[in-house]
Amino acid sequence: MKAAVLYANGDIRYGDWTTPVLGGDDGDENSVIVKVRAAGICGSDVPRVLNNASHYYPNVLGHEFAGEITETGSGVKNLRAGDRVAGVPLVPCGNCGDCLKGDFALCRYYGFIGSRSQGGFAEYIKLPESNAVKFDGSVSYEQGALFEPSTVALHGLRVNNYTGGRDAAVLGGGTIGIFTMQWAKIFGAKSVTVFDISDERLNLCGKLGADYIVNTKREETEINKNRYDFVFETAGSDETMRLAFEIAANKANVCFIGTPSKDLVFTPKLFENMNRKEFKLTGSWMSYSAPFPGEEWTLTAHYFKTGRLKFDDDMIFRRFKLNQAGEAFDLYKTPGEVKGKIIFVID
Question: Which residues contact 336 (CB under 8 A, 6 or more apart)?
Fold first, then answer.
């Protein structure tokens, strides 16, 4: 088959790769072969390609993907050829203390499809049945490739003990921020305000259901510093992480979903917000719960089917063929050039 193969830092090329088959490995009776139809570039893929962060070379990345099952192992019970499925990248050990408690994202002995084993930047992929989530035929493959960021957003609500009927804030209007906003609305937020520095992203958030949008570059006077009962930071920037401390209400729940890429500096006065307001701060990591892979995945399939979880074409920045992988990753060399999700459309 063909795949986009990372041979060295910055060297990703389209070429031949071994086609996965059933019957050659232990556990194949419980596995499926998927013809990949769409695969997204995650922000975590960028340093793997451009900043020496790949676990090894050569490597086939891609952990946001969806496709059609072409073959099933003899032990597969709930899937069949022709089913549309989204790929679940985490492969937990299932035996450590965290796994036994259902905290699969915290497994210390995990595998990960698309970084530690072959991912979805390829024509075909082999998955355990548990790592393939079926979705309805009315849901597009591009939506299927967005399951993973949607589940990351919903997991953030879960760990932040989210409840409806109160005001929520989402800091960052990227893909995960858009889904965080939508999940907060689906589960009954009194209002959701999205903060970003891009009018383009903010307008998309408004189109998809945000009650209020605030451009933090020019609307400082509109930022209520002590209003929001639930705060979700999704950008991973020091500016938004500091802002989260300011806008949280007394007794608020604050969740950091975004992953920072540089040192964070809080002044004593700013950090004191957490003490004086007695808000709770938590982190959120990946997107899994029991039974594996969790309701984050099954609810994404359900709400995409019903249409309450919305997809808009403007969520996609660019579409590329798989043989254009090098061109796609070149866009990330210019800071701020990529505004939205890049999707590989695979015939």
Answer: none
Residue 219 has pLDDT above 80, yes or no: no
In angstroms, the CA 84 to CA 94 distance is 26
Phi then psi for 316, rounded to 5 degrees?
A: -95, 120
Share of the chain above pLDDT 70, in %: 99
Question: Tokens 């800091």 sit at which residue?
Answer: 171
Q: Tokens for 20?
A: 């996965």
Residue 199 φ/ψ, nearest 5 degrees: -60, -35
Within 8 A by CB and 6+ apart from 240, the residues are 171, 172, 195, 233, 234, 258
Backbone torsions φ then ψ of 138, nearest 5 degrees: -75, -15
Distance in angstroms (rounded) separating the CA atoms of residues 92 and 112: 8
Whole-angstrom Cα distance, residue 194 to residue 211?
8
How are beta strands 191-196 and 31-40 bridged, if at all? unpaired
> CA separation (Å) from 15 to 1, 5, 115, 285?
8, 7, 18, 33
pLDDT (tens digit per residue) in 139-176: 999 999 999 999 999 999 999 999 999 999 999 999 99
Contacts for 326-335 with beta carbons within 8 Å, 24 or more apart? 326/12, 326/13, 326/14, 328/41, 329/12, 329/41, 329/46, 329/49, 329/50, 332/46, 332/49, 332/50, 333/50
Residue 39 three-state SS: strand
Tokens representing 99?
A: 């796994």
Cα–Cα distance between 181 and 232 in angstroms, integer?
9
The DSSP 8-state label assigned to residue 29 in this structure reads: G
Do residues 29 and 84 touch, judged by C-beta distance below 8 A? Answer: no
Return the DSSP state at 104: G
**What count of residues does the chain have?**
347
Percentage helix, strand, coil for the chain under 3-state DSSP, each rounded to 5: 30, 30, 40
Lowest mean pLDDT among 25-29, 34-38, 49-53, 73-77: 25-29
